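Example 9 (inverse folding). The structure is encoded as follows.
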C-alpha cells in the first residue's frame, strides 16, 4: 500500500489531468445526467438518514490489511482555493481553467480494532461533489493543505487516537452546494455531509 500511494503521489500532475477530465468534462454529459436523474429518483423513495451536518459523525468498519477497524468519521469542513492557486497545483495550468481545489477535512477516530500496520485506507473513499456532480481527484495535494495530516506517517495508528485526513478534488468555480461522501468500503452506501460553498 505504501509503494502504491507513494507512486501515485509522485505522478500526481499526470493523474490529476486524467481524473479531472474524466470527472469534470467530456462528451457524456447527457448520459451522466440521465444516470444521475435515475439514481436520484430511486434514492428519493426512502428517507436519507445518512445525510449529516458538518461535524456530525458516523461509524463504520473498514478493512485495513487483514484486520477490520472501527472508525468514527466526521466531515468538518471543505476549504475552497482560488483558480489562481489551483493552476499552481497541476502540470498544465490551462487544464485548471474554470476549476478550483476543494479540500475535505475528515476527523477520524480509531474506535476499535488492532493498530494499523500499514498506511490507513479509511479516507480513500472520500469524494467531493459540487452541485450534484463528482469532482476530479487531485492526488497528493491534500497532504500539503493546512490542518491536514499525511496518511503515510500514520502507521501504528491505535485505538483512541484521532487524526485529520483530507482529500482534494477539482470542482467548478462558482459551485454553490458541496457534498462530502464517505463509505466504509468501495461501492458501499455513502454517508453524505452537505456544505454551502464559500468562495474566496
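The amino acid assigned to each position is listed next.
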Amino acid at each position: 500500500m505504501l509503494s502504491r500511494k507513494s507512486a501515485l503521489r509522485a505522478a500526481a500532475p499526470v493523474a490529476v489531468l486524467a481524473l479531472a477530465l474524466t470527472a469534470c468534462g467530456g462528451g457524456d454529459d447527457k448520459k451522466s445526467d440521465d444516470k444521475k436523474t435515475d439514481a436520484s429518483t430511486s434514492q428519493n423513495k426512502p428517507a436519507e438518514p445518512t445525510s449529516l451536518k458538518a461535524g456530525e459523525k458516523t461509524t463504520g468498519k473498514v478493512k485495513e490489511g487483514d484486520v477490520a477497524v472501527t472508525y468514527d468519521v466526521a466531515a468538518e469542513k471543505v476549504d475552497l482555493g482560488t483558480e489562481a492557486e489551483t493552476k499552481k497545483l497541476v502540470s498544465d495550468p490551462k487544464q485548471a481553467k474554470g476549476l478550483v481545489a476543494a479540500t475535505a477535512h475528515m476527523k477520524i477516530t480509531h474506535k476499535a480494532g488492532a493498530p494499523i500496520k500499514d498506511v490507513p485506507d479509511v479516507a480513500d473513499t472520500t469524494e467531493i461533489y459540487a452541485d450534484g456532480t463528482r469532482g476530479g481527484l487531485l492526488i497528493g495535494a491534500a497532504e500539503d493543505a493546512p490542518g491536514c495530516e499525511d496518511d503515510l506517517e500514520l502507521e501504528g495508528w491505535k485505538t483512541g487516537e484521532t487524526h485529520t485526513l483530507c482529500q482534494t478534488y477539482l470542482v467548478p468555480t462558482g459551485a454553490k452546494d458541496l457534498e462530502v461522501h464517505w463509505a466504509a468500503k468501495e461501492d458501499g452506501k455513502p454517508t453524505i455531509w452537505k456544505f454551502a460553498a464559500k468562495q474566496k
